[in-house]
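Posted in: Protein Modeling Q&A

I'm a second-year student putting together a small comparison for a lab meeting, and my supervisor asked me to include a predicted structure for Nuclear transport factor 2 family protein. I've never done this before, so apologies if this is the wrong subforum. The sequence is pasted below exactly as I got it from our records. If anyone can share the structure token output, I'd also love a short note on what stands out.
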Amino acid sequence: MKSIILQCALVALIFGACQQGPVRYTQNSPEIDTVKNLIANYNSKNFDTSMYADTSKTFYNTRENPLSPSEAMDYHKQTDNNYASRGFMDDQEYEMVLTDDGETWVNCWLDWKGTLAANGKEMTIPIHLTYQFVDGKIVREYGYWDPTEIVMELQKIEAAAQMAEDQEQTE
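Accepted answer (user: helix_wrangler)
Welcome! Here is the predicted structure, written out as tokens:
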């Protein structure tokens, strides 16, 4: 009898150990699909804010002064003036995690390529974006990248234009 009770307890323990909790990490989820759609919209210059909660906050290379969804789209439209072409490249990495606090985040590591309109210089920049989701909507977005190469090139273009203007005025 002890043997049967011991065996039943062992079986119950094994089944209990096999019970899985919620998925804490995945590379396939509706939230990842939303982010992929957002990236596709960016590439096609479709500035849609429907994936964001009205109160969403976006932070690009900062932890202060967040942008609203419409301000983030305006930011992209404004920076588009500098490029003949731009967009995220194919074959990117996405993951969704459920934190210990129950928050849902999608992280992505992307390569962005742009060609400056003023001189045709092509640049590729690695970018990390992370999105927090609540009820299927983005409530936080953080984007991090090193803009140094672009800023330096735009400064060179501006300096050359200023030099040409100064030279015209002295002639």
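A couple of things worth pointing out for your meeting: Strands lie at 25-26, 52-60, 83-88, 93-98, 104-116, 122-134, 137-145. Residues 148-170 form the longest helix (23 residues).
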